[in-house]
Amino acid sequence: MAVRTYGTMAVDWEQRVDMDRLRTERLARAKRFLEESDLGALLCFDMNNIRYITATHIGTWAYDKLIRFCLLPQDGEPILWDFGSAARHHAIYCPWLDGDERSRAGISTLRGAVEGRAESVAEKIRVELEKRGLLNEPVGVDFIELPVLFALQQAGVQVVDGQALMQDVRKLKTQDEKTLLSTACAMVDAAYDELYTAMKPGFRENDCVALVNKTLFELGSEHVEGVNAISGERCAPHPHVFTDRMLRPGDPAYFDILHSYNGYRTCYYRTFAVGSASRALVDSYKRCRDILDHAISMIRPGVTTADVVGEAFPKAEEFGFANEEAAFALQYGHGVGLSIWEKPIFSRLVSFDYPETIEEGMVFALETFWPSTDGWSAARIEEQLIVTKDGCEIITRFPAEELLVTAGGQYTVAGPLPGTREKESNLNNPRLVDQVVASANGEAGSNGGEAAVARPENPAASGGGGGVNAG
């Protein structure tokens, strides 16, 4: 087993996540990659990059504000400019920033709401670069507001792309990052178990979202980035957003749970059938699972993303889309760390032209989708995994090998209601058809030996009663 999972608390009697080691190793990777690059410094506005380099965090409300920034110069330590009193808080509680020396007050434009700040940001950066003799060196920036870009250029700073470098920095995970990612998945394991128990007719998609949020926050989640809750007729094509639709008997329902534990994310799909599943859904689930299992079986160091998508992922046209851009992210893979979409990327849209080699220490998610032949239901499954020296370890553990039925178990006079049932017409339900045929044959036998009634052939009625087995 590549990674262990612990409790979420710190204790003195067991070595769990070593936060000091986490901070030290992340910064060391960033420094090493910067040293090997042609850049004089890295300037980051991306909250995830700031956290990776400085190990600071001021709440998820700030993710889209672009107000904080940090500078990592060649052969130097990171300097952080933060939102008002947060800078003073870091100076007190983050000793690795050397107090006020490298935790300073300073804000950007708040997405254009505050005037005059772009020039202030540029001047702060110019001063630090000039002090270190780096003003004539290119500065890598992850992303930036246009007024700040123009102000930096006006101040003589040569701005180039820095996000690509930070993607490479964050691509391989440290021991503690793997533990945090596995723990984040363990929380979602629990959320899915709560969801599986709660789903029944009348429960709404937004009720599902609320339950998942409650469970995750009670377990110690820092941030629930999103919960995709998709059910019934909304399943194909995938809309990527939940509504207040009520679950109904026979519905497919699939979910993606994206949350953060100590900054580390999950991207974790599961599909269920509410009460029962149609044969079309059973078949699409099996196809979806087969694609995913094929892809997982190929994962090991040295294989490329192009190898995986070329052999395991179907073409867009095979499941109803005009091209790979239209089907993007349905047969997909992506790195997971401090954000949910990192390197490496697995997609027929990009991986053939830009293949990436799989390496030990990568953590990524593989996700598949398959629409049903009924034209509206679909299956969606995703697993997160850690690449080991000779394969991979799956860290998403809520069962998904076969399609699970929730809110079932109803009894009829003839016994348990089958887990596989057709909702388009009762005549499509195999057991009911068998009963009709048997009854008709009984009557025919008592009427002078008339010919027996044959069981109607119906492609949708393949399979029988009992539980759903997508294997």
The percent range for strand residues is: 15-25%
- Can you identify the CATH superfamily of the largest domain? Creatinase/methionine aminopeptidase superfamily
Instruction: Write down the CATH class of the largest domain.
Output: Alpha Beta
Q: Tell me about the biggest sheet?
A: 6 strands, mixed
Separation, N- and C-terminal Cα atoms: 26 Å
Q: In total, how many beta strands?
A: 18
Q: Specify the structural class.
A: alpha+beta
CATH architecture level-2 label of the largest domain: Alpha-Beta Complex
Uncertain runs: 445-453, 455-467
Order of helices and strands: HEHEEHEHEHEHHHEEEEHHEEEEEEEEH
Task: Give the overall average pLDDT.
Answer: 91
CATH fold topology of the largest domain: Creatine Amidinohydrolase
Helix content: 25-40%
Outline type: elongated
